[in-house]
């Protein structure tokens, strides 16, 4: 059975540890963490060991520090591929359509840098550091999924 740390051991063991502590079994101190160490000369305080509270300055901050329980729940639908397409490409497609910069097959006359990418280059760029895509699949499974 496990015991709470200050109550571990018999009374004899605890008294022996108080009088002649074994360095391999440190004595439990229920006090806050020490801010230094003991030497033969005395106690040495280390400034880096002193706890420091970092509190932001909220002067001029307009939001309340809590959310009321009466606040309405925010329900957001799942972000789908259609939503991503609308967010990235729809504005350019509508703009090209209105200015007449589309070919008869729907291709852009002057494509943007993203539209000029080949599927292989786009796949590599999407997996670069900072692209925000993380996959549980192996590289082979990814290649089979996208290049087969």
From TrEMBL:
This is Putative mitochondrial ribosomal protein l27. Belongs to the mitochondrion-specific ribosomal protein mL41 family. One of its GO terms (molecular function) is structural constituent of ribosome. GO terms for biological process: translation. The lineage of its organism: Eukaryota, Metazoa, Ecdysozoa, Arthropoda, Hexapoda. Coiled coil: none annotated. It is found in: Mitochondrion. Keywords: Mitochondrion, Ribonucleoprotein, Ribosomal protein, Transit peptide. One of its GO terms (cellular component) is mitochondrial large ribosomal subunit. Signal peptide: none annotated. InterPro entries: Ribosomal_mL41.
């Amino acid at each position: 059975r496990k015991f709470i740390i200050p109550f571990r051991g018999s009374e004899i063991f605890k008294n022996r540890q108080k009088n002649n502590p074994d360095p391999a079994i440190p004595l439990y101190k229920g006090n806050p963490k020490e801010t230094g160490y003991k030497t033969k000369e005395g106690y040495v305080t280390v400034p880096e060991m002193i706890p420091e509270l970092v509190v932001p300055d909220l002067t001029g901050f307009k939001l309340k520090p809590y959310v009321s329980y009466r606040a309405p729940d925010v329900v957001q639908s799942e972000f789908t591929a259609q939503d991503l397409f609308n967010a990235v490409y729809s504005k350019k497609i509508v703009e090209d359509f209105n200015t007449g910069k589309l070919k008869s097959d729907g291709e852009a006359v002057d494509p943007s840098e993203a539209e000029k990418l080949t599927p292989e280059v786009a796949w590599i760029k999407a997996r670069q550091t900072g692209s925000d895509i993380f996959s549980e699949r192996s590289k082979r499974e990814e290649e089979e999924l996208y290049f087969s």
